[in-house]
Amino acid sequence: MGKKKILLEDVVKVNPFQTPEGYFENFTDGIMSQLPDTFRKTSTNIHLWHRVRPWAYMAAMIAGVALMIKVFTVSPIERKIKSYASEGINLTSSSDIDDYYRYYDDGLAQLAYDDAFYETSCSE
After folding, report:
1. Is the dihedral of CA 113, 116, 117, 121 positive or negative?
2. CA distance 81 to 94
3. Residue ranges of the alpha helices (H) in 6-93?
C-alpha cells in the first residue's frame, strides 16, 4: 500500500477565475450610470437630550462612585457618632462615649428582658 506523496511543486498552478473582456475598462462607467444624477442631502434633527445624554450618564456614574466611596469608607463608629450628634447628643470625649454606650447597653438589656418575659403581640 504505497501512497504517493503529492508535493506542492507537482500541483499545477492555474487560476480558475476569469474576468470578462474589457470589464475593468467599463467598470466605472457602469457604476456611474447606476447612480442618481443629484445627491440628496438628508438632514437629521439631533435633539438636545441626545447631545447631553452621555454627559448626564457620566455625571450620574461619578456621583454614584462618590457616594459608594463615602458609604464604604466611613467606619461604623463614626456613623454612630454622627447619628448621635444628629439626635442632639454631644459626645466630645471618650468617657462621654463610654457612658453613652453603657446607657444604651442597659436599655437594650431591659428591652431584651421585657421581650423575654412579657407578651408583646397584639391579638384581639
Report:
1. positive
2. 11
3. 27-34, 48-73, 76-86
For residue 122, pLDDT beyond 60: no
Q: Is the pLDDT of residue 36 over 90?
A: no
Distance CA 7, CA 43 (A): 61
Whole-angstrom Cα distance, residue 40 to residue 38?
6
Helix (H, G, I), strand (E, B) or coil at 12: coil
Three-state DSSP at 73 gives helix
**Cell representation of residue 123:** 391579638
Question: pLDDT by residue (tens digit) across 37-60?
Answer: 777 777 778 889 899 999 999 999
| Contact yes or no for 81/91 (Cβ under 8 A) | yes
State the DSSP H helix or E strand holding residue 101, giving kind and residue range, or none if neither: helix 94-117
| Amino acid 92: pLDDT | 60
